UniProtKB/TrEMBL annotation:
Keyword Hydrolase among record annotations: yes
Pfam families: Amidase (PF01425)
Alphabetical list of InterPro entries matching this protein: Amidase_dom, AS_sf
Residues of the Amidase domain: 83-154
Name of this protein: Amidase domain-containing protein
GO MF annotations, alphabetized: hydrolase activity
Length: 155
C-alpha cells in the first residue's frame, strides 16, 4: 500500500510532493520518450496510443474492445486478467503524461489483483463474477483505502 503524503508544508509544497508521488507510480518503461512527445501545438492526442508505437498490436486490440467483449474474452481464456489490466494501465499512463487526467495511480495494485483473478479462474474454471478482470477507473470522489481523495482539486 502506498505511503500517504505528509500534510506538513504549504499547499504548493504538498501539491509538488503529491505530483511527484503520482509520477513515481508510472513504471519507467511506460514513460514516453521525449522524441515521441507531441509538440505543444498539438491539441488532440486521442490517436497517440495508435500512432506512437509505444503499445503492441495486442495491447491496442485489448484497449479498443468494449467491456462486454472483454469480460467474455477473459472468461474464455482469450486474454488473461493481467494482460487486460496491464494494457489499460499502460494506456492510462500514456494519457496521464499527455493530459494529466489521473489523480491517483493504482497500477501495481490493479495488476496484483488481476493475477489473483487469473489464479482463481485457472483453479476453479469460472470467474468470480460478471466483471471478472475488467479494469475500472473511479472518480476521485470515492474513498479508496490507502489512497488520497482530493475530489480532483489538485491534479
Amino acid at each position: 500500500m502506498p505511503a500517504r503524503p505528509s500534510l506538513n508544508g504549504t499547499c504548493q509544497e504538498i501539491c509538488i510532493r503529491k505530483q511527484a508521488e503520482r509520477q513515481s507510480r508510472i513504471p519507467k518503461e511506460w514513460i514516453i520518450p521525449s522524441n515521441k512527445l507531441p509538440g505543444r501545438e498539438v491539441r488532440n492526442v486521442i490517436d497517440f496510443p495508435l500512432k506512437s508505437g509505444l503499445m503492441t498490436e495486442r495491447e491496442l486490440e485489448i484497449t479498443e474492445k468494449n467491456a462486454c467483449v472483454l469480460v467474455n474474452d477473459i472468461a474464455s481464456g482469450s486474454y488473461t486478467s493481467v494482460e487486460v489490466v496491464t494494457a489499460f494501465c499502460l494506456r492510462a499512463a500514456l494519457a496521464q503524461q499527455l493530459v494529466n487526467c489521473l489523480t491517483e495511480i493504482m497500477f501495481e495494485d490493479a495488476i496484483k489483483r488481476a493475477a489473483v483473478l487469473d489464479e482463481y479462474l485457472a483453479k476453479n474454471g469460472t470467474t468470480v463474477g460478471p466483471l471478472h478482470g475488467l479494469p475500472v477507473s473511479v472518480k476521485d470522489q470515492f474513498n479508496v483505502k490507502g489512497y488520497d481523495s482530493t475530489i480532483g482539486f489538485v491534479a
